[in-house]
Prior knowledge:
There is one protein chain. By secondary structure, this protein is mainly α. It is about 75% helix and about 0% strand. Helix 1 packs antiparallel against helix 2 (about 20-40) and helix 5 packs across helix 7.
Amino acid sequence: xxxxxxxxxxxxxxxxxxxxxxxxxxxxxxxxxxxxxxxxxxxxxxxxxxxxxxxxxxxxxxxxxxxxxxxxxxxxxxxxxxxxxxxxxxxxxxxxxxxxxxxxxxxxxxxxxxxxxxxxxxxxxxxxxxxxxxxxxxxxxxxxxxxxxxxxxx
Length: 154
């Protein structure tokens, strides 16, 4: 068992002992998603910590999107629960980059892409190929794309 998955399991056991319903249900769903990913495909395999982190990030993103949908639908109690679940999952993810840090990385990638001959809005794909490996897990794809668009346009 990977160390991150073991930590999730240990935290789940602690949450069950403390009778923390929100935390235990959130961790159960996350561990289930990890197990589902492990058995997907032709053969069962164990996920690495990086792969487990990607699953957790996907689950956290689902919670943010669900919270937005509930808020727009007027179901504020459900939106608050989804937000709280997202906060629990964020504790298992690496610290997110600030806007200034992200803009610095994107600016360097734009300069690198321009040096390679890509310019203007058409360079979006080339810049994203450079930026994504550098910010993997530390910034949401939508934030990265918005920053790239802003720097390419201006």
